Amino acid sequence: MPEERRAIPALKLAPPAWDEPDGATAALTSPSDARVRELAAKPLNAQRRHHPGQWVCAVIVTGFIAWLVKALAQNGLIGWPAVRRYLFSADILHGLLGTLELTAASMAVAVALGFILAALGASANPVLAWFVRGYVWIFRGVPLIVQILAWYNLALVFPVLAVGMPFSSWHLQGSTNALVTPFLAAILALGLHEAAYMAEIVRAGLVAVPRGQTEAALSVGLTRRQAIWTVVLPQTLRVIVPPTGNQMVGLLKASALVSVIGGVELLTTAQRIYSVNFQVIALLMVASVWYLTVVSMLTIGQHFLERRLQRDHVGGDRSFPAAADPGLAGIGPQL
Amino acid sequence: MTAAIAGPMVEVLGVHKSFGKTEVLKGVDLQVGAGEVMCVVGPSGSGKSTLLRTINRLETPDRGLVLVAGEIIGYELNGDRLRERKEADIARQRSRIGMVFQQFNLFGNLTALENVTLGPLRTGHADRAAAEHEARRLLIRVGLEHRLHARPGSLSGGEQQRVSIARALAMKPDLMLLDEPTSALDPERVGEVLDVMRSLATDGLTMLVVTHELGFAREAADTLVFFEDGRVIESGPCRTTLAQPARQRTREFLDSVL
Asked: Over pLDDT 90: what percentage of chain B?
């Protein structure tokens, strides 16, 4: 304790350097000071520190990659000629087109349904809110592959599908097996599953826009619906777009699961070809190359879209707190 | 509308409001005459903001009624009974009442000019050319002719609040509600907003202002209301009440603020 007490006046006695007149700064420095001043006046030309550890790691990783490439390239069993032959073959391109159609159609279903579900979930009606919670619980909780198989086998529970006018004998009906093609089953399964995630993403976006935005819109005479469409929804996009892009990449890859019901898509096509010629790895390579190509294009598109949305919000916005970026961490991988 | 009414611009009649178990307004009666500027002062949490928000029905009173320009806000008479108005009708009533928020609440996705034109355009009060012409005039009036196309994020707090005043004025309201308009501002930005408010008061706009700026109250307000614990404790002509409050509690509060 006595030592500490002595320390306090000592601290008080040491004056901050910036309180001193010019002369005092010179007095504090050492004799080598002239050389330091000279160096300070010149362009900075210091000897760099070496980081030998970084070099060692880089060499090890590069060597490993080189070894892997060599092992794959020189491996006669992979069938590189087959990769070249099938990469742009009509069958594979047809399958790729199927994958793109499937992804686009189910994403459209998911986005539309996601917005509707989020709107219903935000409604004051507790029955609607519970309906949305139940939907998300089921379609997010049941594995996607199970949902695909279930839609494909819908005929087992509902052999005939019919629409009719109530209180009249008019109706249309058809066999479920004829109506629910593998393509439609795939869109239903992927779209409804994805919609559960989209509903959560849109909900997070709506929550991120402060209540004051709606109140200000109401105060100038807008109705609640106008306030949501013109003020709230445009501001949710910045929050909704990044996770939606991730979901779309996930959906593209998830569409490969449709191969269990044999729809027209990339992986199914590849499997059909290798079941005949046994070039299994070559055709999986072909499929992977195309998946990676499409994912890269989606990623680039998303990057530009995000940059544009960001630019519309130059300098940030005080009425839009940074903390409002929602906890999307809870929305996990979908498979 | 303004010309047609003989009575007060605002009448608050026995308004009660609770949030959960907390009763925030415990029976408020208030009258604001046409062209009158009324300042509401009182400790924070006393229900001043809630009172303002019941006037344009951002909050619905549990009991009691609010009348603006002779119309019951949120209800209409159906014989001897009240009937809730349609949403579009309530929106029309709100459009006659300008509101300025403590946190500005400018639309983050729109420029200053678009913030001001949104109301007139969406409610069909004006076509685009007329709305933009009027918005420019109002933004010039609040001294922001050089920031017409700035987004809220690049405006200072004082500038944002002046845009939000212009946004409220664009609807040509009968009445302006200002909820602590300078409380979220840096001290050196308070003056520019008070200047705009003073000029509105001089123009004869009916204003109901919740504020801690007693200087503004002394210069610009006609009446002062001291509000505490969900009730009006004292009200009277502004200068008299500030100089010689009748109630001990009002005196204590004014002493603590000054």
From this structure: 87
Q: Is B183 on the interface with A (CB under 8 A)?
A: no
pLDDT digits (tens, 9 = 90+) for A89-113: 999 999 999 999 999 999 999 999 9
Q: What is the mean pLDDT of chain A?
A: 83
- Chain B contact for A321 (CB, 8 A cutoff): no
CB contact under 8 A, A220 and B109: no
Residue A58 resides in a domain: no
User: Residues B172-185: pLDDT tens digits?
Assistant: 999 999 999 999 99
Residues with Cβ within 8 Å of B214's Cβ and at least 6 positions away in sequence, in order, are B41, B242, B254, B257, B258
Task: Determine contact: A183 vs chain B, CB below 8 A.
Answer: no
Query: Is A266:A283 a contact under the CB 8 Å cutoff?
Result: no
Least confident span in A220-229, A312-321, B164-173: A312-321
Separation between Cα atoms, residue A212 and residue A324, nearest integer Å: 13
- Least confidently predicted of A27-31, A170-174, B16-20, B199-203: A27-31
Which residue did the predictor score with more confidence, A268 or B2?
Answer: A268
- CATH code matching the domain that covers B10-257, chosen among 1.10.357.10, 3.40.50.300, 3.40.50.970, 2.40.10.220: 3.40.50.300
B residues 132-161 closer than 8 Å to A (CB):
151-154, 157, 160
Query: What's the pLDDT score for residue A329?
Result: 37
Number of domains comprising chain A: 1
The pair of structure tokens assigned to A148 is 């695909």
pTM of the model: 0.76
Q: Given the structure tokens 């019919």, which residue do they identify?
A: A162
- Which chain A residues touch B98 with a CB distance below 8 Å? 219
CB spacing of B123 vs A234 below 8 angstroms: no
Residue (of A168, A140, A172, A103) closest to A335 by Cα position: A140
Q: Angle A126-141/A90-121 helices, nearest 10 degrees?
A: 150
The residue type of A172 is L
Token pair of B30 as six digits:
């208030």
| Cα separation, A18 vs A33, whole angstroms | 18
Strands of the B71-72 sheet, one edge to the other: B22-32, B10-19, B63-68, B71-72
Residues B152 and B182 sit within 8 Å (Cβ to Cβ)? no
CA distance A221 to B174: 13
Cross-chain Cβ contact A220/B160 below 8 Å = no
Per the CB < 8 A criterion, the answer to whether B196 and B220 are in contact is no
Q: Is B47 exposed, middle or buried (0-12, 13-18, 19+ CB in 10 A)?
A: buried
Domain that holds residue A172: 85-330
Is position A73 within any domain? no
B181: left (phi over 0), alpha (psi -120 to 50) or beta: alpha
- Is A34 domain-assigned? no
Residue A151 has pLDDT above 70, yes or no: yes
